[in-house]
Amino acid sequence: MGKTVTATHCPYCSLQCGMELVASPAGIQVRGRDFPVNNGGLCKKGWTAADLLRGDRLTTPLVRWQRDGPLRPASFPAAIDAAATRIRATQQKYGRNAVGVFGGGGLTNEKCYLLGKFARVALRTKNIDYNGRFCMSSAAAAAQRAFGVDRGLPFPLADIAETGLVVLVGSNVAETMPPAMQWLARQRAAGGELIVIDPRRTATAEGADLHLQPVPGTDLALAAGLLHLLVADGGVDDDFVAARTTGFGEVRRLAAAWWPERVERVSGVAAGRLREAARRLREAPTAMILTARGAEQHSHGTDTASGWINLALARGLPGRAYSGYGTLTGQGNGQGGREHGQKSDQLPGYRRLADPAHRAHMAAVWGIEPGDLPEPGPSAYELLGALGSDVQTLLVAGSNPVVSAPRAARVEAGLRALNSLIVCDVVLSETAALADVVFPVTQWAEESGTMTNLEGRVLLRRRATAPPPRVRTDLTVLSTLAGRLGVARGFPDDPREVFDELRAASAGGVADYSGITWERIEAEDGVFWPCPAPDHPGTPRMFADDFPTPDGRARFQPVEPAFPAEQPDDAYPLWLTTGRLPGQYQSGAQTRRISRLCGRVPRVEVHPSLAAALALAHGETARIVSRRGSAEFAVSVSDAIRADTVFVPFHWGGTARANSLTDPALDPTSGMPGFKACAVRLEKPEKPEKYEEGTG
Amino acid sequence: MRVVVVGHGMAATRFVEELTGNSAGVEVTVLGGEPRGSYNRVLLTSVLAGDYPRDGIWTHDAGWYRDRGVTVRDGIQVTGIDRAASLVTGADGSRFGYDRLVLATGGVPNVPPVAGLRADRSGGLLAGCHTFQTLADCEALLADARHARRAVVVGGGVLGLEVARALSERGPTVRVVHRSGALMDAQLDPDGAAVLRRTVDELGIGCHLSTVARAVAGRDRVTGVVLDSGSTLDCDLLVVACGIKPDTALATGAELATRRGVLVDDAMRSVTDQRVLAIGDCAEHRGRAYGLVEPAFEQAAVAARTVLAGAPGRYSGSRTVTRLKARGVELASMGEVAPEPYDEDGVEVVKLIDPARGRYVKLVIRNGRLVGAVALGDADVAASVTVAYDRRSILPPDRVRLLSGGEQPGTDPADLSDATAVCRCNAVTAGQIRTSAGRGARSVAAVARETKATTGCGSCRSAVAALLAARPAQRAAPNRRRCTLSDDRCDEERVPGGRT
Hints:
The complex is a heterodimer of chains A (696) and B (500). Chain A is an alpha/beta fold. In chain A, 30% of the residues lie in helices and 19% in strands. Mean pLDDT of chain A is 92; it is low at 688-696. In chain B, the strands form eight sheets. Chain B has a five-stranded parallel sheet, with no helix packed on it. In chain B, strands 9-16-10-11-12 form a five-stranded parallel sheet. A five-stranded antiparallel sheet of chain B has the order 21-22-25-24-23. In chain B, β11 (173-177), α6 (190-202) and β12 (205-208) form a beta-alpha-beta unit. Residues 473-500 of chain B have low confidence and may be disordered.
C-alpha cells in the first residue's frame, strides 16, 4: 500500500494552520503545509495531533438506560431512539423550550449551521447558545457596534509583519498560538515595535519593547488613559475622525477624566510607562491594536474592547494599510461559529433573530413561516443556569461546559438535575460522562467541512481517514435525529450540501458566503468573507472605503472605565486570573489525552514574594478559595506574575477546575462572564474545608 | 423630585452623572458659578504646563445635559438658601425651589495677608499676581506667563509645586517660597521632603524654605517679593498657592453646621438638614475635608444613592493617595507617613534614602499591611506601592522587594538556564538544545530534526544558533527535562533565579 497525502488544517486553534496528513498502513503522520497563516510551521499541539486518532476516544454510542445506571454501548439506531424518546418526553411534559441546545466554537460551519437549524426548525426551541459566549463574544459585540460587522481580523494575519507597531492587549500569542509569532518576528526584524499589556510577563511579553503589567480587569482604564494622552500630545488623527467616524466628542470628553496618574492608581501601571506607550503609538507610522481574552473576558469586556477600538479610531487606524483593530479569536472555528446561527440571538449570515426582515429571509430559506421561528433566547451562562428548571433536556455538541463554564460546580449540578442529557463528542469528556446518550462523532481528520479562521478566511478541512465503524458525523446525528422527530426534510448530512444551503442562507447578510465554493477555497488558499458572488474576489482587507454601518462611518462608543465587580478584600485578598498553557487546549478534553503533550500537572503561578509571605514552596499543593468554590493546584513560583495576582490554567476538571473559582457576573451586552478577574485567597490544604455551594 | 445642585465642578458633574445614569423622573437643575460650564479642574496644571489642550478639558456638552433633561445655569451667583421655603436665590433675582439641595461649591484659594498683594480695597490682586483655582485663573496666568521672566510661587505644597513646575516648562525661572522647612509638609516626612527639595533644585526651581512673603513690591505691577528674612526676590509674576479652603459661605448663611467644611453624615447629608447634601471640596466628613478629586467622586456617588434611594448611601471615608503631576518628579504619598523607625512597637518602617539619584521610598506597615508610604523618584515603585496600599495587599516578607521597580534584565541566549523554554511552539528548552548539540547536532537544521525546535514560527532560530555557537560549554546538562517524559514539572514553567 502506498501513502496518501491529504491537505487539511490543524484541529485546534483559530489559526487553522495548514498541515498534511500522510496516511500509510503504519498510521497517520502530520507534516507541515505551506499555508498563508503558518508557512509550514506547527506548534507541538499540531505536530502531535495525529495522536488524537489513536488515543482514548469514543468508538460506540453509549446509553444510560437507568437513571443511576452505567453508560452502556449501544447501536447507533438504538442511541437515536433513546435520544428521540427523551426529547419527546420533555417536549410533551414541559413544552418545546424545555429542550436546549449547547454548541461549540470548534464545530465546522456546516455543523454550526445545521445545529442552529435543528434547534429552530426541528426542536423549535429558543434555548440554543454556545461556548463562544465564553470566548470572544465581547470583542464581537464591540466590533459590531463600532464597525457594523464582526470579523476577528479585518486584514490577513501576514499584514502584521508589515506594521510599525503592534499593541497586544491580553494576548499571549507566543504560548497560545505559537506559529503566529513568525509574523511578529518578521515585524520586529523590519524595525517594528511591540507593546504587550498583560498582568503576566508571558513569553510574549518577555520579547516586547514595552510591557505594561496591569491589575487584572483594568484594561479599559488603560485604553482611556492612552486616549487621554493622544489628545494631550496631538496624537489624534483629526482628519480621519472627521471624515470617517461619529461620536468622538463625547469619547474625548470622557477620556479627559483619565489622566495618567489616575489610571496608575487603578491599574498599577506607572504613569511614565503609559506615556511611553502613548508616545510609541503616536509615533508609529502604522499600528495594529489587537485584543484577546485577557481584555475581553470580563463582565465589562464589551466596553473594554470598545475602549481599545476607540483608541484605534482616534489614531485613524481602521481601514488603513497595515493598521487597524482586531481580536485574536481563540477557538478553531470561533469566527464561523458565531456567524451561522448557533447563538441565541442570531440567524445564519450574522442575521438577527429579533429583526423581522431577517426572520422573513431565513424562514423563506427554511420553508417555514416567520412566526414559527422562536424568539431570541438567553445567553450561554443563563441557559446553563436554567438547567433542571426551564430546560429539562440538553443536547451538547462540541463543548465541555463542566470544565469551561464559569461557576462550573453549579453548571455540573444543573447537568445532573436534567431529565436527560445528550452529548455529541469525540472523547468521553467530563460533560459526556454525565450524559444519558452519547454519540461518538468524527474528528477533524475523519470528516470534511469548512472552517473560518481568525482572519475571516473560509477554509477547507478534508477527510484523510475513515472513522471507526460506529462513529458518525454530527451532521448524521442531527439529520437522523430530525427524521426521528418527524422532520424528514431539510437536514442533509452531506457537508457539501449543507454548505450550499448555508451559502444561500447567508446571501445578503453581513457574513456573506454565497460566492464561496469548495473549489475556490482549494484554488485560492481560502476565501475571505464577505464574498457575495462567485466572481467576487472575497475581502481580505475591510473598511478601506467605508464601514458597513448605515452612514458608512465607524461609531465611537462612549464607554466609562468599569472594574471587576469583585475586588480583593481581607477575606479574599488576591486577584485570580486564568488562561491557557502552550501544551493544552481549551477544556483539555483532547490535549489531556495526548501523552506527548506536557504540562499535565495543573499549576498555580505565584510570585516569589507572595509564596514567601504564605510560606508556599515550589511544587507544594495550594488550595485556592473564592466565593464560589475551591480548587487545588501545585505551586509554581514565578516572578512573571504580579505579586497581588495568581494565575491558573483552565484546562482541567475535578479538583483543579479553575472555573470552580471564577466569577459568573455577566457582561450586559455580550453575556461574557468575568473569567479573567475575581478575588481569591490561597492557603495550604492542611485543614480540609467543607465548601457549600451557594454561600458567600 | 426637584434636585438643585449649587456648583458645577467635578463633584457636581459626577453627581449629575450618577443621578441621571440611574433614574428618570428626577428634575435636576445645576447652578454653576463659573461662566462656561463643567471641566476637569485637575487638568488645569497640565494646561498650564502645555501638556493638555485647553479645549479638551470639558466634561460634557450642552447636548449631554439636554438628553438627560438636566437644566444648567452657568455663571450664576447663588446668594442665599431659604431652607424654610426650600428655595435657592441667585444674584440676578432668580429663584429655584428644591426637594433636595446639593452643595458642591468647592473651595476658594487661601490668600495670606501679605502687604501690597491686594491692589485695592475690593480685594483684587496686584497686576502680575495670581491665584490658581479656576479656568479663568489658569488663562490669566497663561497670558501673563508668556512674557514673564522671573516667577515666584508662594506655597510649596502640591499645588504650588505643580504650578511651579508647569511655569518652569513655559520658560520663566521659578522660585518657590514656603513657610515650612519642608516641601509638601502635609504629605511628606522630613527625609522625603529633603530628597524632594534636591529633585526640585535640579529642575532649576529654587526653594526658599522656612520663610514667608512679608510684602509684595511694585506699584502697578509686581516687581518682587520681600521675605521675612529681609531679602527681596525680584519677579514679574507671582502665584499664590497656599491651599484651598472649603467654600462654606452659603451654608453658613443658611445656618447649616460647618467647621472647616459643611458637616455631613455618612449619607453626605448636612447634619443640620437632611434635605441638604454637601459633596466634594466644600464638605467635611468625619473631620476630613479632602480637597482631592477621588473622594469627591466617591462622595458624589454616595450622594446620588441617598437622593434616589429610600435607603441612604453610606460613605465611610476615602483612602487617599497624593500623586504629584509635575514632569520630572515622580512622587506618590499616601496614608501615615510620619512614623519613623524605633518610634513605636508594632509599626514597621522601612526607608530607602538615595538623594544622589533623587530616590526615596518609605513604607509604614502595621499588621502586615501597608498603611502609609512615600515613593519618590521611581515611577514603578510609586505605582506598585499605591496598589498595595489601596488594596491592602499581602506584602512580601522581605520588604526590600517593595523598594525597587520591576525592570527585567535582558538575557543573552547563551546564558539561558537549561530549564528555559527557547522554542515556545514545541516547548524545547535550552537544556534540550545543548543536549542535542552535545550528541553531535551542529546546525539549526540538525537541532530541528532532533527536537522540533524552530519548526513552529521559527522566531527562535537565532537563539538556537546562539546556543550552538556557545558550544563547547560545560553547561550541557543531562536530558532530564525532555518534554515527552512524564516529569511532573511541565516544561512551560519558569523558575526564577535559576532555581530548578
